[in-house]
């Protein structure tokens, strides 16, 4: 993955999310130059599904 603006290779960076009052970290591709993030939808959905499953367990 390459940043369109900077033509730099994106780096994996731990990024903090909150969803349904829960917070979690996940590795997200980020441009080291401008900080632009690339979030694959399936990653976000996967993590959110995990959070939802944890909620249902209770
Ligand atoms: Zn960039």
Descriptive overview:
By secondary structure, the chain is α+β, with helices and mostly antiparallel strands. It has one domain. The chain is built from one helix and three strands, in the order E-E-E-H. It has a three-stranded antiparallel β-sheet with strand order 1-2-3. The longest helix is centred in the last third of the chain and has 17 residues, at 41-57. 3% of the residues are buried. It binds zinc ion. The site of zinc ion has 8 residues, from loops.
Alpha carbon gap, first and last residue: 39 Å
Low-pLDDT runs of 5+ residues are none
Biggest sheet descriptor? 3 strands, antiparallel
In which order are the strands of the major sheet placed? 1-2-3
Give every kind of bound small molecule, once each.
zinc ion
Question: Shape from CA axes?
Answer: elongated
Please count the beta strands (DSSP E, at least 2 residues each): 3
Beta fraction: 25-35%
Overall mean pLDDT = 86
> Mind telling me the C-alpha Rg?
14 Å
Helix percent band: 25-40%
Helical run tally: 1
What letter string, H or E per element, gives the SSE order?
A: EEEH
**How many domain modules?**
1
- Helix-and-strand structural type: alpha+beta
């Amino acid at each position: 993955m390459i940043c369109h603006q900077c033509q730099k290779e994106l780096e994996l960076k731990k990024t903090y999310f909150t969803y349904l009052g829960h917070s979690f970290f996940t590795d997200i591709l980020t441009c080291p130059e401008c900080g632009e993030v690339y979030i694959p939808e399936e990653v976000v959905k996967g993590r959110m599904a995990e959070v939802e499953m944890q909620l249902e367990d209770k």
